[in-house]
Design goal:
Shape of chain B: globular
Number of domains of chain A: 1
Mean pLDDT of chain A: 88
Order of helices and strands of chain B: HHHHHHHEEEHHHHEHHHH
Shape of chain A: globular
Number of strands of chain A: 2
Largest sheet of chain A: 2 strands, antiparallel
Number of strands of chain B: 4
Largest sheet of chain B: 2 strands, antiparallel
Radius of gyration of chain A: 19 Å
Distance between the termini of chain B: 12 Å
Number of helices of chain B: 15
CATH topology of chain A: ABC transporter involved in vitamin B12 uptake, BtuC
Order of helices and strands of chain A: HHHHEEHHHHHHH
Mean pLDDT of chain B: 90
Structural class of chain A: mainly alpha
Strand content of chain B: under 5%
Strand content of chain A: under 5%
CATH topology of chain B: ABC transporter involved in vitamin B12 uptake, BtuC
Oligomer: heterodimer
Helix content of chain A: over 70%
CATH architecture of chain B: Orthogonal Bundle
Chain lengths: 292, 347
């Protein structure tokens, strides 16, 4: 066994794991606040990547301007979707809202194909090429940057949940909507905020994913991996998203390298089923006690 | 206005078709189904067969999702199991084709029971994801169990033979596919007049209450999974005879979403909903082709936009139905019926 190679694969796994965690965080944010699984997260990732691409190539904006604009575009999209589609569905069954987001994802894919056609494209390089060495192990610069950015953003989120008014309001809404309402928390505003922040996060993650692997209308598949992460970690657990993301990132990297690319999905989904059989609400998810 | 429909016995009240109007419409529908193959051209017969196959599968999914309340995103994988079973029996065993289709249903039902096992512990959205996991694993089996499934290249299926008659054209297959589908839809409609069907509905409404009322949850949930995947398997088997080649990519994950969308657009928990929904969702993309042909002189590259526009319309249909008509096409039919029942009074 070549330990250096193993370390390199592990580091790459950690890098993609961090990106998965970031995307999973977007799922968790929305689920915590509104009890909606947003299956369109993968497509919002794609939207972020394409927005950046459009700002840089079509409008000729500088990179430092295009990145915040793409993220703001994600936030705006989240706001519009929450206000026009999700809020009228309040009180409908969770299947209906899930399917609504599936439909939304389909519309996004179709619109992207219509505007930018189906060819995969590379994002303009904004990270540089020089490889990073940790000890002797080689890490692609993009993956290293992706890891650092994801870690910083996740740390920022944890601080915001703990100390910022909006973060506390979000946790309160997640715990008990009616009680939060009666304490003067503007619950609809919290819904709106959660969708905006989550979609902005997803768009940002899309920038990183697109910079590493290029953008194409099928890159929403990444959202499926992130979905596995949140189900294993527990739909309403930030900690679960972190640990699950790293776990799935590592497993995918190891399975992809040592067993072959086609084993990636089947390994992660087998782990998913095993995890669900042992803990039906994910490793760290809230166990819902049902009573008559 | 509907009058004089008073019923004197419980049997009459429980009937599938209770009024004379319903019987008349059903008669018209049957007559049209019988006459259709002699009136339609090849293309429309092809579509009719495709609709019938999708109706069978959507009805199965409606038993599971609409009536038992267990969301499944694995219907396409169950269809694939059926299609592979038919391909295997046709190619390597050589049993008669009706038996193969039955076997397809039974094998799928078995797989469905296996997939359904987590359903007692895992609920709601978590279960939906677990069925995605099952379909990913099944897809892996299809590509790697080369001796049975032919791997990535798939299997070619010989045309169905019936007393030496080769059923290869849509015209010939129509007489197999449509009657089987009609039987299955009838079976589903009758299922919900029996104890089992009522138990499914009780589980959907509140599974703990159902258990308190004496319904063994595990057995009935597995039964629902088995029935639903039996329908999917038979549909997949007919699909295999219809398209005559089965590969792992024949039933992508998008097909599962298609069936769930069809059931939702049609109406969850109604038999007529699964029929209308499957027909609607199958035919709309075809109608779009006509719209694009019609627009071609005005927009020169309309043809290239067909596939993305189909994707958009598919998504938009799901969204629009969920927001504006959550009970689906079945509710529209019910509203139309109510209008005529009460006419000249307003609803």
């Amino acid at each position: 066994m070549d330990w250096l190679f193993f370390t390199e694969v592990t580091l790459a796994g950690l890098g993609s794991g961090a990106l998965l965690s970031l995307t999973a965080l977007s799922f968790v944010l929305i689920y915590k606040a509104t009890r909606v699984i947003n299956l369109a997260v993968g497509e919002i990732l794609m939207l972020g990547g394409y927005l950046f691409f459009a700002f840089v190539t079509a409008f000729g904006l500088a990179t430092w301007l295009a990145i915040p604009l793409a993220i703001a575009g994600g936030a705006l999209f989240g706001f519009v979707v929450e206000r026009t589609l999700i809020r009228p569905m309040l009180g409908e069954s969770s299947i209906s809202v899930l399917m609504l987001t599936v439909g939304l994802g389909s519309v996004l894919i179709g619109a992207t194909e219509l505007i930018w056609n189906t060819d995969p494209r590379a994002l303009p390089d904004f990270m540089g090429q020089t490889p990073v060495f940790i000890g002797e192990a080689y890490v692609s610069r993009k993956i290293a940057i992706g890891f650092v950015v994801s870690a910083l953003v996740i740390a920022l989120f944890l601080l915001l949940f703990r100390f910022w008014r909006g973060g506390v309001a979000l946790r309160a809404t997640a715990t008990d909507q009616a009680a939060a309402y009666s304490c003067g928390i503007n619950v609809p505003a919290v819904f709106s905020l959660a969708w905006m922040v989550a979609c902005a996060t997803a768009a940002g993650a899309g920038l990183l994913v697109g910079a590493i692997g290029g953008i194409s209308p099928t890159m929403g598949v990444f959202g499926l991996s992130a979905l596995v992460v949140v189900i294993i970690g527990g739909l309403d657990s930030v900690l679960g998203a972190l640990i699950g993301g790293i776990l799935i990132g590592l497993v995918e990297a190891w399975a992809g390298t040592f067993l072959g690319g086609e084993y990636k999905l089947v390994t992660t989904f087998s782990i998913l089923i095993a995890a669900l059989m042992i803990r039906p609400y994910g490793l760290f998810g809230t166990v819902e006690i049902e009573r008559l | 206005m509907r009058i004089a429909t008073a019923k004197e016995t419980y049997i009459a009240d429980e009937g599938l078709l209770v009024t004379a109007t319903q019987r008349a419409w059903m008669g018209v529908l049957l007559a049209m189904l019988v006459l259709a193959p002699f009136m339609l051209n090849q293309y429309w017969l092809y579509l009719a067969c495709l609709v019938a196959i999708n109706v069978a599968s959507a009805t199965g999914l409606n038993i599971l999702t609409g009536y038992t309340g267990l969301v499944s995103l694995g219907q396409a994988a169950f269809m694939a199991v059926g299609a592979y079973t038919v391909a295997f029996f046709e190619g390597q065993v050589g049993t008669p084709f009706l038996l193969n289709i039955l076997a397809a249903g039974l094998v799928s039902a078995l797989v469905g029971v296996l997939v359904g096992i987590p359903s007692l512990r895992v609920k709601g959205l978590y279960l939906a994801i677990a069925t995605i996991a099952a379909s990913v694993i099944l897809h892996f089996v299809f590509t790697h169990w080369v001796s049975v499934t032919g791997g990535v290249r798939g299997i070619n299926v010989a045309p169905a033979r019936f007393f030496g008659l080769e059923l290869a054209s849509p015209f010939a297959l129509y007489f197999v596919i449509v009657p089987i589908t009609c039987l299955m839809v009838l079976g589903a409609a009758n299922l919900f007049r029996t104890r089992i069907g009522r138990a499914f509905i009780a589980i959907r409404d509140r599974d703990i209450s159902a258990e308190v009322l004496g319904i063994p949850l595990l057995r009935y949930k597995l039964m629902s999974f088995a029935l639903s995947s039996f329908y999917a398997g038979v549909a997949g088997g007919m699909w295999a005879y219809f398209f005559r080649v089965v590969t792992p990519e024949s039933f992508p994950f998008a097909t599962s979403i298609f069936f769930l969308a069809a059931v939702i657009v049609g109406g969850l928990g109604t038999i007529i909903g699964s029929v209308l929904g499957a027909a609607f969702m199958t035919l709309v993309p075809e109608l779009l082709k006509y719209v694009v042909d019609w627009l071609a002189p005005i927009f020169p590259n309309a043809g290239a936009a067909l596939s993305p526009v189909r994707t958009i319309v598919f998504g938009a249909l799901i969204i629009l139905f969920l927001v504006f008509e959550p009970h689906g096409l079945a509710e529209m039919v019910r509203r139309a019926r109510r209008f005529f029942h009460l006419w000249p009074f307003r609803t």
